[in-house]
């Protein structure tokens, strides 16, 4: 099985005009995640995709929330340096169980290991979002509790066979086949998918851009 990140592109029809102060402005998603791309489109936020390339090495003693927020901020900052006039959206998602951080699986064997750890148990999904604009960088972390049903070895093998676990933190996706193994969640469903839209629009306002359903515009009063 090939573990790779799907390419994401955006059609001309999806690129709607987003204005700020009467000028067309670019919004860039600093992530190659198809799920984050789809979430932005679902909310009517037209954007380009320019994945950030940062070192995701976990630092010894680093708390999970600090780690994922640091990565989101570094991703946002790295793209903002290249595109200083754009509004940059960056994010990072991890799964935590027994204090251990589960990122994306290296291969099928690693995915099986993660799924066995999560089987029948509650775990945490942490998603950090960072928004950069005009030299300002704002960020926050959402924490969601997720409970799996009990998984047999056959369940795990067949789920991995779908290919879905390959590019996802904790080796599962709640919006796909993985929906059938999630017993319940406590928190923002979209944060588990990879980006809380409520959190995103709040952070946008902090950098002077307000989501108004028909697009994103300059906020009259930034708080």
| Total count of domains | 1
CATH class: Alpha Beta
Overall 3D form: globular
Characterize the biggest β-sheet. 7 strands, mixed
Q: How many E-type strands?
A: 11
The DSSP helix count reads 6
Order of helices and strands: EEEHEHEEHEEHEHHEE
Unreliable stretches: 1-24
Oligomer classification: single chain
Gyration radius (Cα, Å) is 18 Å
How far apart, in Å, are the first and last alpha carbons? 48 Å
* Residue share in helix: 25-40%
**CATH architecture type:** Alpha-Beta Complex
Question: Can you give a write-up of this model?
Answer:
- By secondary structure, the protein is of the alpha+beta class.
- It has one domain (12-218): Maf protein.
- Helices cover 28% and strands 26% of the residues.
- It has six helices and eleven strands.
- The protein has helices at residues 34-42, 64-82, 108-118, 153-161, 189-193, 197-206; strands at residues 19-20, 23-24, 27-29, 48-49, 87-97, 100-102, 122-133, 136-148, 182-186, 209-211, 216-218.
- Strands 3, 4, 5, 6, 7, 8 and 9 form a seven-stranded mixed sheet that branches.
- Strand 1 and strand 2 (23-24) form a beta hairpin.
- Helix 3 crosses helix 4.
- The longest helix has 19 residues, at 64-82.
- It is globular, with a radius of gyration of 18 Å.
- The relative contact order is 0.17.
- Mean pLDDT is 88; it is low at 1-24.
Structure at a glance:
The protein has 223 residues and is α+β, with helices and mostly antiparallel strands.
């Amino acid at each position: 099985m090939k573990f790779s990140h799907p390419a994401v592109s955006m059609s001309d029809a999806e690129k709607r005009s987003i204005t700020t102060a009467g000028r067309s402005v670019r919004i860039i998603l600093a992530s190659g995640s198809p799920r984050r791309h789809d979430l932005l489109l679902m909310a009517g936020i037209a954007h380009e995709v320019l994945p950030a390339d940062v070192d995701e090495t976990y630092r010894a003693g680093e708390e999970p929330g600090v780690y994922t927020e640091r990565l989101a901020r570094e991703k946002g900052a790295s793209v903002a340096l290249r595109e200083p006039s754009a509004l940059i959206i960056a994010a990072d998602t991890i799964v935590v169980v027994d204090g251990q951080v589960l990122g994306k699986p290296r291969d099928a064997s690693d995915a099986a290991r993660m799924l066995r750890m999560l089987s029948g148990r509650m775990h945490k999904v942490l998603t950090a979002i960072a928004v950069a604009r005009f030299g300002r960088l704002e960020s926050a972390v959402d924490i969601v509790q997720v409970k799996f049903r009990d998984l047999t070895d056959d369940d795990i093998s067949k789920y991995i066979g779908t290919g879905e676990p390959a590019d996802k933190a904790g080796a599962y996706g709640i919006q796909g086949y993985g929906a059938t193994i999630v017993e319940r969640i406590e928190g923002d469903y979209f944060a588990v998918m990879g980006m809380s839209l409520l959190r995103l629009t709040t952070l946008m306002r902090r950098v002077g851009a307000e989501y108004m359903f028909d697009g994103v515009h300059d906020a009259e009063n930034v708080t």
